[in-house]
Write a structure and sequence with these properties.
Structural class: alpha/beta
Helix content: 25-40%
Distance between the termini: 30 Å
CATH superfamily of the largest domain: Dihydrofolate Reductase, subunit A
Largest sheet: 9 strands, mixed
Radius of gyration: 22 Å
Shape: globular
Oligomer: single chain
CATH topology of the largest domain: Dihydrofolate Reductase, subunit A
Strand order of the largest sheet: 11-10-9-8-12-6-13-16-15
CATH architecture of the largest domain: 3-Layer(aba) Sandwich
Length: 351
């Protein structure tokens, strides 16, 4: 049975999720105002640069003596990437009696809890903290380390194969996991694949979720083999496409730039995946979703770059000659949380 605090915080977390794909590099935040046991105001951070969740929840309501539930510690500072004033002064001004917080902000500049207590407001923190921290894992990693959050997705057959060499894209996952994959594309700032995925499947790497937005597309392509008519380049003048290379083909580099792509030199003989990942925040990318290529996935795991692993295991099997083995060790899957998503068994968790 959920406590009253957990019930209202669950609502705050649900509201926070509405900002997925819209608020980065800011965190997802939801807020619920409760007075006499009833919700009298609620809101979320809807888009980067817009009003914060607390502002939306408190707009036009009498909050004196009420309890405010917030999924993340309220901000108390200005500057940096912030485009709006801090929320703590507003909470104090509104006469709120108690504030319930799920997760504490790891930004050392944030002193929200401290300032609320100093103002005489009762503060309870840690309510559904694990759920809140998972919801904001990308923001919390970057604010703590300065490095982007990396999620890796893989789809494999029941016998541990991800495709057949020489063939184009082979569909393994069901529609439920496919829909979830597009939600992930919306969630993360960028999607990353290797050149072999582009050559074999010619993907667009767009988000087909209703109301979603396309992530920045990143191609690891050491020798600039990306075809100029590739689907991934079709809207590169309007949506960012980054080709990570080693700069050995200047003519092709200029042609890709004319198509709208940004060519990023990252390595000497081969693209250095770690250097590429570490450089992303300087390009305004704070989370990345690795979706394609056994070689890229194996490299990311070997370099210990992966923060979250998501693996869908189909009921189908590949017995054909040339079947490509998954780079995900079976022993690693056993350490992850398992759930059923349609016909697929999905393993996921932090590494």
């Amino acid at each position: 049975m959920q406590s009253e605090d957990e019930k209202f915080m669950s609502r705050a977390l649900l509201l926070a999720a509405k900002g997925e794909g819209k608020v980065s590099p800011n965190p997802l935040v939801g807020a619920v105002l409760v007075k006499d046991g009833k919700i009298t105001g609620e809101g979320c951070h809807e888009f980067f640069g817009g009003p914060h969740a607390e502002v939306n929840a408190l707009a036009g309501v009498d909050a004196k003596g009420a309890t405010l539930y917030i999924s993340l510690e309220p901000c108390s500072h200005s500057g940096g990437l912030k485009k709006t004033p801090p929320c703590v002064p507003l909470i104090i001004k509104k006469g709120i009696k108690r504030v319930v917080i799920a997760a504490e902000d790891r930004n050392p500049e944030v002193k929200g809890i401290e300032q609320l207590k100093f103002a005489g407001i009762k503060v309870t923190s840690g309510i559904l903290a694990q759920e809140a921290e998972e919801q904001n894992e990308s923001f919390l990693k970057y604010i703590s380390t300065g490095k982007p959050f990396v999620a890796l997705k893989m789809v494999q057959s029941a016998n541990g194969k991800i495709g057949i060499k020489g063939k184009g894209k082979v569909w393994l996952s069901g529609r439920e996991f496919d829909a979830y994959s597009h939600r992930l594309r919306n969630r993360y700032d960028a999607i990353l694949v290797g050149i072999n995925t582009v050559l074999a499947d010619n993907p667009s790497l767009t988000c087909r979720m209703k109301g979603g937005r396309n992530p920045v597309r990143i191609i690891m392509d050491s020798r600039l083999r990306t075809p100029l008519n590739a689907n991934v380049l079709k809207n590169a003048h309007n949506e960012r496409v980054i080709i990570a290379s080693v700069g050995i083909n200047f003519k092709k580099e200029e042609a890709l730039k004319e198509k709208g792509a940004h060519v990023l030199i990252c390595g000497k003989k081969e693209v250095d995946l770690r250097a590429l990942i570490d450089s992303l925040p300087s390009l305004g990318i704070y989370s990345v979703f690795i979706e394609g290529g056994a070689q890229v996935a194996a490299s990311a795991l070997k370099e210990k770059l992966v923060d979250r692993l998501i693996v869908a295991v189909s009921s189908k099997k590949f017995e054909e000659k040339g079947a490509v083995a998954s780079p995900i060790p079976s022993a690693l899957l056993k350490k992850l949380k398992k759930e059923q998503m349609g016909a697929d068994t999905v393993y996921s968790g932090r590494l």
